Amino acid sequence: MSVLIQFKSKRIIDKNRVSIALSDFSEDVYIGDLLGATDNRVITNFSDATGKFSGYTPRLELSLRLNSIYEAPYIEKVVLHVTGEESAEYEICLYSGIIMYAVKHVETTASGRTTISAEFSESDHLYPGRNYNTTKIEINIISAANKGSATATIAGVELYTRALKFDSTNTQKCKATVEIDPSCLSIPSNSATFTIDDGRVHTFGQREPFDLYSISGEKIQIIGTFYVVTSRILSGTTYQIEATDAVGILTDGKLTGDIYYGKIGTIDLIDITASGKVSASIMPNLPVKELKGIVEIDMIRDKLAQICAATGTICDTTQVAESYIGFDVLKTSDACKEIPASRTYIGGSLSEEDEKSGVSVTYRSFKSLLFSDDDSEYDEARRCNAYGSLLAGLTKVCMKEYTYRLTNDEMSSKADAVNDLELSDCYLISELNYQVVAERLLAYVKRNMRYKVKILWDGEKPGDYVSVPTANGEVIKGNIIRMDFILSTKTAAEIEIMVDSVEETT
Amino acid sequence: MVKSLDNVFMMDNKSYVGLVVTSLKRGCSILDGDNVGRNLNGSMIRDIIGSFFTYEMEIDASGCDKDIYDNFYEKITTTSVESHLCRFAYGQKYLKQQMYVAEAQDELQRCAPDGNHWGKLTIKFVAMDPTVESMKVTS
Question: Which residue, among A9, A164, A141, A133, has the nearest Cα to A64 in the 3D structure?
Fold first, then answer.
């Protein structure tokens, strides 16, 4: 046995559908009593329900009380069925249609009241803002905790029916990829895919979190926390699950301007929930203290990438038993972990990335126009490219944009063209840290050798500084930047190392 | 020594009267998973999934009713099921597990007024799953 997948949410398995009446949905509405089950699998009902639709793009807010034994229901989607008459200025016609709402957030209070927030996801010719007469809502609910009998205990924590073990009679394909961007310019999301068939029927909710463990004898090690993205029924009780990590469920979005100017703060942890809600803990314990900016609580992927670029940190989503994104710097040779020959497979390969001619770092400077404009002259490496002005409150502020360039003096002569690694859109780069950032990027550019090798896994993770022997008697040292896990009865990983040194063994 | 079929072989909890096993070969493959290989010391890294047994047998149908034989042949060559619950002789016990038919071969030995007489049937069964102790039974 080598793999265990522990779903963090204590819920199973049965999917139920209920219907409730809705008198109107164009304004704040009263949702009537439960009409009744659409099939006899219904095991819960609602009362005291109200609902509200708002916005031109329908946004649905339901508030109701669940009269059942189930706690904290997991709700996948809300389906609004519309039948009746559509009233519009230019036509009146009978209409029927469906609006699908993707549930974004479900919250149940101690009093048992449940609030569901859902956003419009697709429509069948249904126009928001018009009036429809008769409607019905179907809510897909996955019931809450039903512990059953514990299947295993790890670190004193009992695991229940959703803990899926792989053993010699139930071997399934299971792979995971975890990686970092050693330049710290982006935050890659990690992934896990596996196929299960334990003879039972499951329902996997979207973004349902689980921990993926490797088991070797008595030794249990976590590979990472992942969130279900898609689940497919292949046949019978065989399921194929694709999942991503905490970074992967963050949304993409445009960076707002308020991150770059103001308070001083550094960030240590990003807590993240299955619904994608993010909160940040601001702590002054990162090595780079010059970060200048307002770090928002509701962060999105872009902003995390900005923080990584400014502070030289990588994201770590492999933390034990919690769902958060940690930040760390690349480990150095002081923390070198030796991978012995007995854990190293034959067949490593050394390759070279494209050479970069240097690095260019752009940063911005802001200055109140109450004072005279800056007439300083800059050397060639630190050029002033552009400037503009903006209003910050009632004060007109001058913004200047500079580009700072460092040349890669280790580049071979064959690459004459300018081929810089550019950091051009980082709001957290300022006069305080641009040189540190540029020098870090230059050090990254110079380390363009990569070594790929398969190892038996023993807790290594991306960012670790490792030494690994080669078949021709050398020892390669460097940072792991990517791991492709192959989970079988033993756990192995194909690792990619950003090489720091190649040494002859004595 | 010729044994009667139901002593050494049953399929889907049924024995076939008159079909006689004249030869039974047992094989075992210990299969590894994707992480099998050799390390830099030259040592083998095993990734053992389990032991998979195969049984290859020859059947003499000369004393068997043609309908029973034809029925048995249809059963082993059908594609409507992926595997059969087989019980084979295993040491002094039996091995009872799901196995699939990998190969079946026989000969038309005689065309007679009462019909075609087939014989010299050889069948190869391969285990669906690795063998565990609970599959080794006494009856």
Answer: A141
pTM summary value: 0.67
Contacts of B46 in chain A (CB under 8 A): 490
Inter-chain contacts counted by CB atoms under 8 A, chains A and B: 59
Whose CA is closest to A315, among A294, A324, A213, A265?
A324
Q: Do A490 and B38 touch (CB under 8 A)?
A: no
Question: Are A489 and B48 within 8 A, CB to CB?
Answer: yes
A351 in B contact zone (CB under 8 Å): no
Does residue A182 have a pLDDT over 60? yes
To the nearest whole Å, the CA of B36 is away from the closest chain A CA by: 9
Question: In sequence order, which residues have a C-beta less than 8 Å from that of residue B85 and are 6 or more positions away?
Answer: B11, B12, B13, B96, B97, B98
Amino acid at A383: R
Residue type, A427: Y
> What is the predicted pLDDT for the residue at A238?
77
Q: Of residues A133 and A207, which shows the higher confidence score?
A: A207
Chain B partners within 8 Å of A214 (Cβ): none
* pLDDT band, very low/low/confident/very high, at B52 (cuts 50, 70, 90): very high
For residues A396 and A436, is the Cβ–Cβ distance under 8 A?
Answer: no
ipTM of predicted complex: 0.77
The number of beta carbons lying within 10 Å of the beta carbon of residue A111 is 7
